[in-house]
Design a protein that fits this description.
The protein has 258 residues and is an all-alpha fold. The chain contains eleven helices and no strands. The longest helix is centred in the C-terminal third of the chain and has 38 residues.
Length: 258
């Protein structure tokens, strides 16, 4: 976590950038049709948040993101650990996984809309496809990176398969999995937003699509800012979760100060 002094530096950089942007728009250096002033973007966000319907848009996007994230993560971890423990099965399924991973996710969005409709589940399905492979490959690699000496010692001490999974494989893979969780949360949001953008009646992606449809750059930028805050809040939740799940990991901040 950044120190208070680092936070002040971050805020100072942000203030300078926004101030320069505002001055550039007011002096005509930037065309407000393409680059609206930060004050105009803030006013648009304030207009949205004052409307009770805005909470519905946020809640729909949040629901799609969380469901896609949880389902994709659960499937990715389960299959990654399973194939990591079974090299033969991994070799058999390897070409199929590579083919599925090579398919552009955006191409799948229209198919999901045909299969699941324009409602919630087509967006969830798209988010799942984005999250799944990130989590899967990290979980798989984490299991494969188990220290063989530790594994052999545990076997000598009589550890069974379930005990090896719980006390050797999972702790080793935990760091890999949690690193993928932080990355995949952004992809879960992207999946939900792309699905809403291509076809929906509500959600933050729908707001951005509406703004783009009438060439409202202010609305597009406002949607981007809201999404950025949205992802940052989710990242903070993951950071809190990570600190409590991996209590055995050394405190890097403490090591840095010594």
């Amino acid at each position: 976590m950044p120190r208070p002094a680092d936070r002040l530096i971050q805020l100072a950089i942000l203030a300078v950038l926004l101030g320069a942007w505002e001055i550039a728009t007011r002096t005509g250096l930037l065309d407000v049709f393409f680059f609206p002033a930060p004050s105009a973007i803030g006013a648009k966000i304030a207009e949205w948040t004052s409307d009770a319907g805005f909470l519905r848009h946020v809640s729909i996007t949040l629901t799609e993101t969380v469901l896609g994230y949880l389902i994709g993560t659960a499937l990715g971890i389960a299959l990654g650990i399973t194939l990591g423990l079974s090299p033969r099965l991994a070799a058999i399924l390897d070409p199929f996984i590579k083919v599925l991973n090579s398919v552009p996710r955006v191409v799948l969005a229209p198919l999901f809309m045909l299969w699941f409709g324009l409602g919630l589940w087509s967006k969830v399905a798209l988010a799942v496809t984005l999250v799944f492979f990130i989590t899967f490959f990290n979980a798989y690699q984490g299991v494969r990176e188990v220290n063989r000496a530790v594994l052999n010692n545990a076997r000598i001490l009589g550890a069974g398969r379930s005990q090896l999974l719980r006390h050797v494989y999972l702790p080793t893979a935990a760091s890999w999995i949690l690193s993928s969780l932080r990355t995949s949360v952004g992809f879960a949001v992207v999946g939900a937003i792309i699905g809403e953008y291509l076809g929906s009646s509500a959600g933050l992606g729908h707001l951005i699509a509406q703004a783009e449809g009438v060439f409202d750059a202010t609305g597009v930028f406002a949607g981007i800012v809201v999404l950025s805050v949205f992802v940052l809040l989710l990242d903070r939740v993951l950071d809190w979760t990570e600190k409590r799940l991996i209590t055995w990991r050394p405190n890097q901040e403490a090591e840095a100060t010594t």
